[in-house]
Write a structure and sequence with these properties.
Strand content: 25-35%
Number of domains: 3
Number of strands: 17
Shape: globular
Radius of gyration: 22 Å
Largest sheet: 6 strands, antiparallel, barrel
CATH class of the largest domain: Alpha Beta
Structural class: alpha/beta
CATH architecture of the largest domain: 3-Layer(aba) Sandwich
Order of helices and strands: EHEHEHHHEEEHEHHEEEEEEEEEE
Strand order of the largest sheet: 12-15-14-13-16-17
């Protein structure tokens, strides 16, 4: 990184992005703080069991905007709030709703990174004369001259690794993005914040999805559809065993995700888990925990990072959830740009709608959406 650059820092109001702004400002760069205003936290308050008051611990809240502005004032840097609520609803919220109604389990944070936090931040940064953007994500990106590609790598603090949510970044986005925290641990980041006199050095990390008040997505789906003048689609149907026996009924496929145990309302001496959701027939197949294990995976809408494309089978580790320990598999190209994977060992609850991210050591090879 060169000194005296103009760098736009994505400031979320948390300790990580605030520390990034402080670190870059100290290095004699011209730093500008940008916050994306994505969702009105009071929009669905009080409807269908949603809390009236926004709950603490959610990212992108009004309190976070206030904290980001306060840090910018402390550092003496310009600060702007960029309203992206309309695009956030179109590219993140509406797909989230559609996926659940189709019996899949989406990851809004990955959609937000792909469509907003990097795409729009980069556009805004360029419009104010910034050469690059910087974020508080825990990841490393480096240029490999031998391959002629930007490479995304796992960070020093594995407990904070966010590469799973960044698999959709393009080569251009990686080329113009800085991840200053990639080689730091969380305790080191908090210490840096203290050294720069940031009042939020001890602020807890956000945990909840920003637009899900109270963390209950079912309440959100009902309230959001009602606001749009729509009713929850009628997708009630049968609960069936893995052998095809009808053992109960359910009120709608949006209430389920693969691997779920609670809420099935089936009297049985042994617990049942959701094995499969069929959006066409509205059938939800349930079975024993052992039946959740599978050796295969298929993914589409794949984005490649460390390689331009997959032309032959490749040995990789695959994460199928953020907290999933990467598992060894053989990854192979399939038709329509899709990929198929064969795991060495069976994996539990491979869930349609979630991301599958492929790793070669510390490098992110690429990733896609589980079909």
């Amino acid at each position: 990184m060169q000194q005296n650059e103009t760098i736009a820092v994505a400031m979320s109001g948390g300790v990580d992005s605030s520390a990034v702004a402080a670190i870059l400002a100290r290095e004699e760069n011209t730093v500008v703080g940008l916050t994306l205003q994505l969702w009105d936290q009071t929009r669905l308050a009080g409807k269908h069991g949603i809390p009236d008051a926004p709950k603490a611990g959610r990212c992108c809240s009004l309190d976070d905007v206030y904290d980001a502005r306060r840090v910018a004032e402390h550092l003496g840097i310009p600060y702007y709030v960029v309203n992206q609520e309309e695009r956030f609803e179109k590219d993140v919220v509406q797909p989230f709703v559609s996926e659940y109604l189709a019996g899949r389990t989406p990851i809004p944070c990955s959609l937000c990174n792909n469509h907003l936090k990097f795409d729009q931040l980069l556009n805004t940064a360029r419009s104010i004369g910034a050469s690059r953007i910087a974020t508080g994500h825990y990841a490393v990106n480096e240029y490999d001259s031998a391959r002629g590609r930007w490479i995304l790598k796992r960070p020093a603090d594995r407990a904070k690794d966010q590469t799973y949510f960044l698999f959709g970044l393009t080569q251009e986005q990686l080329a113009y993005t800085l991840f200053p925290l990639g080689r730091m641990t969380k305790p080191e980041v908090r210490e840096a914040a203290r050294q720069h006199g940031l009042a939020l050095a001890e602020k807890p990390d956000s945990q909840e999805i920003c637009f899900i008040p109270g963390g209950d997505y079912k309440q959100f789906l009902t309230a959001y559809l009602e606001e749009q003048g729509e009713a929850m689609p009628e997708t009630a149907g049968e609960l069936v065993s893995s052998s095809g026996e009808v053992i109960g009924r359910h009120e709608g496929i949006a209430n389920f995700t693969v691997g779920q145990r609670k809420g099935l309302k089936i009297a049985s001496p042994t617990p049942f888990y959701v094995l499969q959701i069929d959006p066409a027939s509205h059938r939800v197949t349930v079975g024993a925990d052992a039946e959740l294990a599978t050796r295969t995976l298929r993914a589409g809408r794949v984005n490649w990072i460390s390689v331009p494309r997959l032309t032959e089978p490749m040995r990789v580790e695959i994460k199928i959830r953020h907290r999933h320990e990467p598992a060894w598999a053989m990854l192979a190209p399939a038709e329509n740009g899709e990929v198929v994977a064969e795991f060495d060992e069976p994996q539990r609850a491979v869930t349609p709608g979630q991301s599958a991210v492929f790793y070669d050591g510390d490098e992110v090879v690429g990733g896609g959406w589980i079909l």
